[in-house]
Every structure is written in C-alpha cells, then in structure tokens.
Amino acid sequence: HAQAAAGVGGVIKMVMAMRHGVLPRTLHVDEPTPHVDWSASDVRLLTEAMEWPETDHPRRAAVSSFGISGTNAHVIVEQAPASVELPPTPEPGAVVPWVLSGRTETALRAQAERLLSLTPDTDLQPADIGFSLATTRSAMDHRAAVVGENRDELLAGLRALAAGSPSPRVVLGEPGTAGKIGFLFSGQGSQRIGMGRELYAAYPVFADAYDEVCALLDAPVDVDSEELNQTGSTQPALFAVEVALFRLLESWGVRPDYVAG
C-alpha cells in the first residue's frame, strides 16, 4: 500500500488520462456487476480503455481516497486551459536569482554543493533553473539567493556559497518572525520616464493590472511621454504603476500588513 501517497496515484493517473485523451479501463474487473442496473443511466464501467474526446467544455474527473479510519478525501480534477503563448524569458544580460534554503547553515551550503555538481551537466537555461528552485522547493529557515547575469556568474556565486565565503553575488538571510511588511504608494516626485516598461514586458500579472487601472482612469497614461512630469499625468501614471507593482508582489506571496500613501 502506498500509505499517505495512495490518493495521489489516482490524481496522477487522471492528469495523464486528460493529457493523452484516453479514458483508462477499471483495473481487476472483467465485466460489470449484475447487481447494478447499468441500463438505467448513462454510467458504465470501462472494461477497456477508450478515447476521451474533446468537447466544448474541459475534461473533468473525480478522484476519491478512502482511509481505514473512515477518512474520505475527494477531489475534482479539471483539464488545464490550452497555453496560447510561452512565458516570457529574460533578455540577455538580465539578472537571474537562484534561491536555495536549508534547515541549518551547513545544509544550505550542502544544497549549493549539490546544485553546483548538477548544473554543469545540464543544458537548461539559468532562468529555467531559477524558476524551478523558486517554485518547487520548500523554503527552510536558512536561505540564500545567488544572483548573476549569466551561467558563469551564477556558478561563481554557488561556489562561494558552498565554501562559506562572502560574495557580492550571494545574499544570505533568515525569515523574520516579528517584523511586519508595509507598502508605500509614493506620490509625485518619484516618477521617471519609462517607469514600469520592463516589468510590463516581463510579467503578465503586472501588465494586466496596469491595463485594468489605465482603462478606468479618465486621464491618459503614457510613461514614455515628457508630459509625465506634469501633475495631470504624473498622478494617474504613478497610481497605475504602483497598483501593478502591488499585484505583482501579491502574486509572489508578498502581502502587506500596512499600506500608506
């Protein structure tokens, strides 16, 4: 028995079934039981795999997991929407962070050593490695961010982290326990020509929030115009950019305890 992982097997099975468009047969059953009136409804037992056709709605499947103590966990899995475009990749020269963590400082350095031993043998792009490190690993108490514009700089930072040596490419820290987060919506004077342009191009969350705010404002917003420094343009442009920044940070799990401005 797969113990605590028993239910996830069914989830994986149905995700793969959706991906391949195949309804898998029910295991260990040669024919439907005669104690059920199968003709009374559209429900039937699959004794053989069959095609799962595309329709005007996404494929859905229900997965149940039953525990011996009476636990009943039930989840409905829905087919993911088709991806219309690939996520943006950083332009050459963009700084990429690799984040690592460990329960102790020694474990953190060991993580750096492990990644250092694997990275030279892979053809993955630095941004892809950074994405996986940030989204698929648990965050422990001892943390580090290795930053660099290319693979060589990132590997140099990893070597320094693994050796416990100081490096301008390594940022160390531990999560705060008592501190609180405040977001400040700054006012006129903090604007600059082109503000938010790179974030708009790189992060759909930022772009969507920015466009939504601009659509609701009566005043035109053009961060590339010299009129940005005029009050009538400055205030709405700052508000649009700052709301978009808020939504971007929120999408990364950063939420404020206080908001001012």
Automatic annotation (TrEMBL):
Provenance organism: Streptomyces filipinensis
SUPFAM superfamilies linked to this entry: FabD/lysophospholipase-like, Thiolase-like
Name of the protein described by the UniProt record: Polyketide synthase
GO biological process terms held by the UniProt record: fatty acid biosynthetic process
InterPro entries per UniProt: Ac_transferase_dom_sf, Acyl_transferase_dom, Acyl_Trfase/lysoPLipase, Ketoacyl_synth_C, PKS_assoc, PKS_Beta-ketoAc_synthase_dom, PKS_NRPS_Biosynth_Enz, Thiolase-like
PANTHER family named among the record's database cross-references: FATTY ACID SYNTHASE, INACTIVE PHENOLPHTHIOCEROL SYNTHESIS POLYKETIDE SYNTHASE TYPE I PKS1-RELATED
Cross-referenced Gene3D superfamilies: 3.30.70.3290, 3.40.47.10, Malonyl-Coenzyme A Acyl Carrier Protein, domain 2 (3.40.366.10)
Pfam family, one: KAsynt_C_assoc
Boundaries of every Ketosynthase family 3 (KS3) domain copy: 1-79
Gene Ontology molecular functions: fatty acid synthase activity
Keywords: Multifunctional enzyme, Transferase
